[in-house]
Amino acid sequence: MGGVRKLAVSFVVPAPAGVAVRDRLKYLTVEDERVLRAVGAHQGALASGDLKARCADGLEHGAETWAARKRELTALSSSRIAGAITKATHDQWALARRCQAAYIQNLEAGIRTLRHRLSLPLGERGTKRAAGGYRSKSEWFRKSRRLAALEDRHTAAVADRQAGRVRVVRGGKRLLNTRHHLTQAQLTEAQWRERWEAERWFLAADGESGKRFGNETIRVTLDGEVSIKLPAPLAHLANTRYGRYVLTGRIAFAHRGAEWADRIEANRAVAYRIHLDVERGRWYLTASWQRPVVQTIPWETARGRGMIGVDTNADHFAAYRLDRHGNPIGEPHRFGYDLSGTTTHRDAQIRHALTRLINWVVRVGVAAIGIEDLDFTTEKTREKHGRRKRFRQLISGMPTGKLKARLVSMAAEQGLAIVAVDPAYTSMWGAQHWQKPLTTPHRKMSRHDAAGIAIGRRALGHPVRRRTAPPPHDRSDRAGHRTAQAGPGDRGREGTRPPATDRPPGGPSPSGKRKREPSASNTVRDAPSTQQWVQDSLMRTG
After folding, report:
1. Looking at the predicted structure, is the pLDDT value of residue 377 above 70?
2. What would the pLDDT profile of 475-496 be if each residue is shown by its tens digit?
3. How far is 284 from 439, CA to CA, in rounded Å?
4. In 315-370, which residue ranges form alpha helices assigned H by DSSP?
5. Fewest beta carbons less than 10 Å away: which of 128, 230, 303, 468?
6. CB contact at 8 A, 242 and 10
7. CA distance 132 to 467
């Protein structure tokens, strides 16, 4: 086992603590859209100014500065809107800090790889674990220049992090850069401007327990009526009392509608967000709320009825069912998807594949799914896979973060537990120990199917290999069992036979089935351990 890294301990992934549902706001009038645009633009400008002030505070931010910013926003809107804006600002600043830390780690990984390869002689071959030297002096020189550039970026990023500086774009950096490539994006300047403004609007409100229908700013009644508390400068646009504007259209949540209705009927907190899909020209309302913290299923309970091992690939899930002892049951299953095309298409493909996977798991009666805890952060660097562009595109196109989050949320609805395992060596050891033994003329086993078995066995707590090495022939009487299939308390196929002392010699067993008598021993070593070996006193040796 020399050179094999220590594997991380498998764990049960906690269930999600929040729920979000979305539905379309239909039958809005021209006046409704005009009011929504005015409110979104006004509150979006306040959110932009608040984010600028928060970024200027940096690491010196405290409760006093937060209270001062909220007081300034309250005069221009309301106390509830000011609280929602400041909370969103802090969440966005914290996200920028996490992205900054990930960027620094990515730079450090690239710098380490470049320094290692530059220290090797030209043309030196690499290994499976480390890249070799560069092929020519020209490539070595170009990589040395890239190393200097990465070191400069790393120094600047570390300085920004220590000073508390972050760079945030309300509306998104990608959409901002699209402004300089309108021809490639097939957009006009007016179309881009409309999308840019819609992304920078702020039409959201946090829920409040104990308030009417769970939210005072954006209120949705049981019959689907939506009303908005207008900010002070826009109070003249109200069409009802207390500065509220009631939309003409109605909304009805088709998904989780009963759960949402129970919450607002009990005046429990529900947060709302209104946004415009410019490409489709449709308005949507998203409702979200928190769930009570659910106790994670213990690992022993999760594996009691077996496990479904799932290997995640670029175009399909390879799943295999295992019993609680780690033995494969039935045939391998594959759930395909296509990750080409737009983001919406890829997301729909992942959801459809996960739905089919979870439905199959429910049908077979297994309560847990074992999946790799994938994270390609260190694998995406181009310094490690410089010439392997197709491989880099492959791993970059796999939405590991969204996939895990969606799988956990969808499995929680069916009462299934998700066990995350270390992904190290699953494909290699699965192919080595399981692919060939399970291949038959009527069953074709791929490397991915075998990896699913390895993942399931690791999630169950068993070793990946089928059996341990057989004991030496001269020590077979004290080497013990050679199987790794079952635990010490489980009777396996290589376990001891039940005693046969309750039946006459050669007669039937209590179950009615005849058992073969043990054959006579041919060697001293095979003699029964109960036999007494004594020396006759009359026998003498010369």
Report:
1. no
2. 545 555 555 544 545 544 444 4
3. 51
4. 343-364
5. 128
6. no
7. 36
Rounded CA-CA distance 239/420 in Å is: 53
Q: Cα-Cα-Cα-Cα dihedral of 426, 432, 438, 442, to 10°?
A: 100
Measure Cα distances from 540 to 218, 373, 524, 532 in Å.
Answer: 108, 73, 21, 20
pTM over 0.70: yes
Model pLDDT, residue 437: 86
Assign 294 a pLDDT band (cuts: 50, 70, 90). low
Contact 20, 405 (CB under 8 A): no
Sheet containing 218-220: order of strands: 218-220, 225-229, 244-250
**Six-digit token string for 274:** 């209104």
Mean pLDDT confidence for 261-278 = 93
| C-alpha to C-alpha distances, 68 to 65, 87, 164, 206, nearest whole angstrom | 5, 14, 20, 20
Handedness of CA 514, 520, 522, 524 (dihedral sign): positive
Helix spans in 164-210 (H): 173-178, 182-185, 189-200
Q: Are 324 and 462 in contact (CB under 8 A)?
A: no
Q: At 239, is the secondary structure helix, strand, or coil?
A: coil
Q: Are 274 and 39 in contact (CB under 8 A)?
A: no
Percent of the chain clearing pLDDT 70 (strictly above): 79
Segment 60-83 shows an average pLDDT of 91
Average pLDDT over residues 66-78: 91
Report CA Rg, the chain. Answer: 33
- How far is residue 360's CA from residue 411's CA, in Å, rounded to a whole number? 12
Q: Identity (one letter) of the amino acid at 238?
A: A
Q: State the greatest distance between any 2 C-alpha atoms of the chain, in Å, as a whole number.
A: 126
Read off the pLDDT band of 401 (50, 70, 90).
low
Terminal CA-CA length for the chain: 54
Per-residue burial over 128-165, b = 16 or more CB atoms within 10 Å of its CB, e = otherwise = eeebebbeeeeeeeebeebbeebeeebeebeebbeeeb
Residue 521's pLDDT band, with cuts at 50, 70 and 90, is very low
Cα–Cα distances in angstroms (integers) from residue 493 to residues 304, 483, 484, 485, in the given order: 20, 9, 11, 9
Query: In which band, very low, low, confident or very high, does the pLDDT at 133 lie, cut at 50, 70 and 90?
Result: confident
Mean local confidence (pLDDT), 53-68: 91
